[in-house]
Design a protein that fits this description.
alpha/beta, three-stranded mixed sheet, 40% helix, binds 4-nitrophenyl beta-D-glucopyranoside
């Protein structure tokens, strides 16, 4: 049957309604302290493990460091004005723990706190909602030296103390907090040497601070201490924050895509999601390690108490997930564990970063799984974006056509999730600007704003033009 158009409603306007996000949806951009701030040793800041790691030759592409980065510490006003120009209604940034506690614990550094007060005041003045990440990997070096960093539960306790102090200091300005960014990435890159499957049987090794290679048993304990740190921080935020303070985590949950959208395949994908995320997302949301995880780990399983599991799964106000790539395609299986992973084909499309397998549907399935498996009631996409080989063209503009394709395709899938009733309340594009991309240094550009790192000149890219219009219409455009 052919359905006639509604009188007075053009194809164009009915389509744009269909692509709309729910009312009040946040259109955010994201960064992290070490990747943008610079000012690594100013105003009483202590060194972080990333300062130490990047200052060691051979660790970072081109021996780049975050010493200056985007100089955001000094240029934050210009940067907030740019966010306003590109239509962002929210900014997710992280706090550098060693700016607040140069020694990790003990006496706070007032000048460090002041920077985040100035930044949040500036955001509020421009009508941009601040979302704070408490830990985006720049651990105070002092805690690494004293406790071995996340190898010790003392670091988890120190993290809770720092989190409680922050909500006391910023609670009048900031309502939304994410405890830890990407448990898996920082634990596996920093304490193991992260391995990523990219198709065709190829594996990539990604390193990070503090640059350790622990045994499986020690590594599982680091994983456990990290989720424990999150739980203790949630408790401290509840105890010391004001009414209306909201908290969640920001994990790069591994995304499982069913080979097809039928009940049997979706069930297999859900089973797989729980199992392959058993060490982080599942224990964070359920307060238990799955039987298969503990059996698989055997003697290498982490040491924990029932009380700790309860702490780890302290109730949250929302769940944040960073979504870039599908991690597995699955089909059902009659044998345990009830699913089978399909290998990535060697020709599977990728984005510019070596690890970045392309599939927009991961931005549909990740939040849908959070709702169907764990009943999540409020979800934020805390990061999504891609690197591209951006250059300034002769007319002074930056034409990032591949990022444009990426954003439109991924956000179409996110909109599909919200229109299916998945409660996604905001989206944060990674990143507000090109910045220090960890082991890749300044070689991988993720921004929707181009940065010339010699002059610190910022140039909004074509994708920023697209983002502004999408945010203005609250729709995929
Ligand atoms: C995230 N992967 O890291 C981090 O939170 C950001 O700091 C970082 O700049 C951004 O994504 C881009 O890399 C990731 O292998 C690292 O799938 C690795 C992966 C995903 C995200």
């Amino acid at each position: 049957m052919i359905v006639a158009e509604q009188p007075g409603q053009s194809v164009e306007s009915s389509r744009s309604t269909a692509r709309e996000f729910p009312k009040g949806f946040y259109w955010g951009v994201a960064t992290a302290s070490y990747q943008v701030e610079g000012a690594w040793n100013e105003d009483g800041k202590g060194p972080s493990i990333w300062d130490t790691y990047a200052h060691t030759p051979g660790h970072i592409n081109n021996n780049d460091t975050g010493d200056i980065a985007n100089d955001h510490y000094h240029r934050y006003k210009e940067d907030v004005a740019l966010m306003k120009d590109i239509g962002a209604t929210a900014y997710r940034f992280s706090i550098a723990w060693p700016r607040i506690f140069p020694e990790g614990t003990g006496a706070p550094n007032a000048k460090g706190v002041d920077f985040y007060k100035r930044l949040t005041d500036e955001l509020r003045a421009k009508g941009i909602e601040p979302f704070v990440t408490l830990y985006h990997w720049d651990l105070p070096q002092a805690l690494h030296d004293k406790y071995g960093g996340w190898r010790s539960k003392d670091t988890a306790k120190a993290f809770a103390e720092y989190a409680g102090y922050i909500v006391e200091q910023l609670g009048d300005r900031v309502k939304h907090y994410f405890t830890i960014n990407e448990f898996r990435s920082f634990v596996e890159a920093g304490y193991q040497g992260l391995e990523v499957q990219v198709g065709g049987g190829k594996t990539l090794h990604l390193g990070g601070a503090p640059g350790l290679r622990l045994s499986n048993g020690e590594l599982n304990q680091v994983r456990h201490n990290a989720v424990l740190g999150h739980g203790l921080a949630v408790q401290a935020i509840r105890a010391r924050g004001r009414a209306g303070t909201k908290v969640g985590f920001a994990e790069n949950m591994k995304v499982v895509v069913p080979v097809m959208d039928t009940p049997e395949y979706v069930r297999a994908a859900e089973t797989a999601t729980r199992e392959i995320n058993a060490d982080f997302t599942t224990v964070l949301l359920e307060g238990r390690y799955t039987d298969a995880y503990l059996a698989g780990a055997g003697a290498d399983a982490p040491k924990f108490t029932a009380e700790e599991l309860k702490t780890i799964a302290s109730p949250l106000d929302f769940v944040g997930i960073n979504v870039y790539r599908p991690n597995a395609y699955v089909e059902p299986s009659g044998e345990a564990p009830g699913y089978r992973e399909i290998p990535f084909n060697a020709s599977h499309p990728k984005m510019h970063s070596s690890w970045h397998v392309f599939d927009p549907e991961c931005l549909y399935w990740a939040p849908r799984h959070l709702k169907s498996i764990w009943g999540a009631k409020s979800i934020f996409i805390t990061e999504n974006g891609c690197a591209a080989s951006d250059v300034v063209s002769n007319d002074g503009r930056v034409y990032d056509s591949d990022r444009l394709m990426f954003l439109r395709a991924y956000l179409t899938q996110l909109q599909r999730a919200t229109s299916d009733g998945v409660p996604v309340h905001g989206y944060f594009l990674w990143s507000a600007q090109d910045n220090f991309e960890w082991g890749s240094g300044y070689g991988d550009r993720f921004g929707i704003v181009y940065v010339d790192f010699k002059t610190q000149k910022r140039i909004p890219k074509l994708s920023a033009q697209w983002f502004r219009e999408a945010a203005r219409r609250n729709a995929v455009v």
